[in-house]
Amino acid sequence: MKFNTSLSSVLLALAALSQAIPTPDALPDGFEPISSEEVRRRMAEPQGSMAKRTPGGIYLCTGENYSGTCGYAVQPVCGSGQCSTASSIAQHCVILTSPYLRNIGSFGPDSGATVYLSTNGNCNEAVASISNPGSGKFFEYAGGIGHQITSFLVFAS
């Protein structure tokens, strides 16, 4: 009986851990799984710290306060003079898929970029923007954009 209880406890702990960090297959192309704790740790680092931050680096989580399914990816960045035509916007536009499509509770861009948020799926019309440190309450940000966002475009700032 003691063995079964211990085994059950271990299996439950492993199941909880496996749900805390999503598998790469569950995230959009380019996004790497990252734990909620690691996102919060990285976001809490001071701007001037030695920690490497990459313009275009984006943290997304399905839950508020960087919880739920989280991922990180360095996205294509529009530099000076770029993204002024429909074709260059299309090349840099990040189209969201499951689990983030219309379901972002936390949005955290690395410093050095401004992210323009779209709800039309093609980045041609930004309805809001966000920059570092982002928002842990993205479902409430800019009129509830976390429930509406379909795509975004990253510009170097």
Q: How does this structure look, described?
A:
It contains 3 helices and 9 strands, in the order αβαβββαβββββ. By secondary structure, the chain is α+β, with helices and mostly antiparallel strands. The protein has one domain: Sandwich (Gamma-B Crystallin, domain 1). β7 and β8 form a beta hairpin. The longest helix is centred in the N-terminal third of the chain and has 19 residues. The radius of gyration is 17 Å and the shape is globular. The N and C termini lie far apart (61 Å).
Q: What's this entry about, in short?
A:
The chain has 157 residues and is α+β, with helices and mostly antiparallel strands. 22% of the residues lie in helices and 27% in strands. Strand 2 and strand 3 (67-74) form a beta hairpin.
CATH topology tier name: Gamma-B Crystallin, domain 1
Largest sheet: 5 strands, mixed
Give the helix tally.
3
> How would you state the average pLDDT, rounded?
82
Tally the structural domains. Answer: 1
User: What is the chain-wise order of helices and strands?
Assistant: HEHEEEHEEEEE
Low-confidence stretches: 3-24
Q: Assign a percent range to the helix content.
A: 10-25%
> In the CATH classification, which architecture applies?
Sandwich
CATH C-level name: Mainly Beta
What's the number of extended β-strand segments?
Answer: 9
Name the CATH superfamily assignment: Crystallins
What is the end-to-end distance?
A: 61 Å
Radius of gyration: 17 Å
Q: How would you classify the helix and strand content by structural class?
A: alpha+beta
